[in-house]
Design a protein that fits this description.
alpha/beta, Purple Acid Phosphatase, chain A, domain 2, six-stranded mixed sheet, 10 helices, binds manganese (II) ion
């Protein structure tokens, strides 16, 4: 039996205002061709189908159109589970209609273990024989498993979390092997397992385990293969047939640095799994231009790409002092290019960085000069950044007026240090791509 494992599509995603809809359209066309060409029996989508819990009509249309085409193919079935970005109930809503098309959706897990059997999906061949059973486990918050963070005893809580997941997968393996003896078992999951690197931007989707890593041992050994989602890079977890497929469309600059994959998995009748990475074609370049203003302008003028969609460009311009003309100058370089409107690169983010590090700490820049998440900032921090970006001196009476308006001094970070924005400290920051894998 042949399975194709993919995850983390994030349909509806944008990158600094640039819609990735054309990227996803091309990926889904390619995926359908690959499913056909490779004679795949089952497609498994391991969560984060959509980028946000309330996806646009356009993103939903893309999803349903794909499912309709997949259902019309020779495949025996499609399995879709919810990720941390998906709304479990929204994904589950059309489950019955989709089920009649052999598209099996499990958006969320019920709290009652008696109802977990819903996750067990027998995949039948043309003769109605069960080829394999998929234990379709979506993203599961620990409270669903009865795990609570106990303050002061992290080790015990972590142990409890691992135990809870181990029990979940063991129970599903018990039930599946009881009902369909001798049939290969496959599981899915949307969680953070060991093996991620800092470049993978792990987010801690479980409150009780800030280390964020679950070992491969939580997956019962009766599963021939475990298809994971959440981390956006393809790799095996330990030496078990437990894999992340990664995101097929690079959703941020870092992801564009490594090839994107789907995984083709052959499962023998005895349950032995053979995994092959299949590289997804590059539909668009995400480009970083670094240097002084002249170098970046030159780079932008000379930029070429053989990918079918126009590149998305980030610029990091080294400046001696804040240069208010950079953005406009780069836009002008773009306008001078002779590509048609459809082929012109998108300038997604322009950041200025001081040539020499500035000694005084500033709320504008964090340690690495990276843009902190908006949720780490107080309204006052944002106001200070705005003033700094615009070169407005932040006088005491202006600050007082601002505090008056928003109702007192900012609280989240305590009293902000007294800082006057000097040009060297100003960073024009590109909105970085989505925060979470
Ligand atoms: Mn994701």
């Amino acid at each position: 039996m042949r399975l194709l494992h993919t995850s983390d599509w994030h349909l509806g995603a944008t990158l600094d205002g640039v819609s990735r809809e054309p990227d996803h359209a091309r990926f889904l066309d390619w995926l359908l061709e690959t499913l056909e060409h490779e004679e795949v029996d089952v497609l498994v989508v391991a969560g984060d189908v959509f980028d946000i819990a309330q996806p646009s009509a356009e993103a939903q249309r893309q999803y349903y159109r794909f499912l309709a085409r997949a259902a019309a193919s020779r495949m025996a079935g499609v399995v879709v589970v919810g990720g941390n970005h998906d709304s479990a109930s929204r994904l589950d809503a059309p489950a019955e209609v989709l089920g009649s098309l052999d598209v099996h959706v499990v958006g969320g897990l019920e709290a009652d273990p008696e109802r977990w059997d819903r996750c067990l999906l027998p995949i039948r061949d043309g003769d109605g024989r069960v080829m394999a059973v998929v234990a379709a486990v979506p993203f599961v918050h620990e409270y669903r498993l009865g795990v609570r963070a106990t303050r002061g005893d992290e080790k015990a809580t972590r142990h409890e979390l691992r135990l809870a997941f181990t029990r979940l997968y063991r129970r599903l393996a018990d039930r599946a092997s009881g009902r369909w003896p001798g049939v290969p078992l496959i599981a899915t999951g949307h969680l953070t397992a060991v093996g991620a690197t800092p470049d993978d931007y792990i987010t801690h989707i479980h409150q009780v385990d800030r280390a964020g890593t679950l070992p491969a041992s939580i997956f019962d050994r009766r599963f021939s293969y475990v298809a994971l989602g959440h981390i956006h890079r393809a790799f095996a977890v330990g030496d078990r047939p437990v894999w992340y497929s990664g995101s097929p469309v690079p959703l941020r600059l870092k992801e564009a640095e490594t090839p994107r994959h789907v995984l083709l998995v052959d499962i023998a009748a005895d349950g032995e799994a053979r995994v092959e990475r299949r590289e997804v074609p590059r539909f668009r370049d995400l480009v970083l231009l670094e240097g002084d203003r002249g170098q970046v302008e030159e780079g932008l003028a000379a930029l070429s790409s053989d990918a079918p969609l126009p590149p998305i460009v980030y610029a990091r311009v080294t400046v001696d002092g804040y240069d208010p003309g950079v953005q406009a100058a780069l836009q002008e370089v773009l306008a001078q290019r002779d590509d048609g409107d459809d082929a012109r690169p998108h300038l997604a983010g322009v950041r200025q960085q001081a040539a020499a590090p500035v000694a005084a700490p500033s709320p504008v820049a964090d340690d690495e000069g990276l843009r902190p998440s908006l949720r780490d900032l107080t309204p006052e921090d944002v106001f200070r950044r705005l003033c700094a970006d615009r070169g407005e001196p932040l006088e005491d009476d202006l600050l007082a007026a601002f505090r008056d308006l928003v109702g007192g001094p900012s609280e989240a970070l305590g009293p902000a240090p007294e800082v006057r924005a000097t040009p060297q400290q100003v960073l024009l920051l590109p909105p970085e791509p989505a925060e979470e894998p």
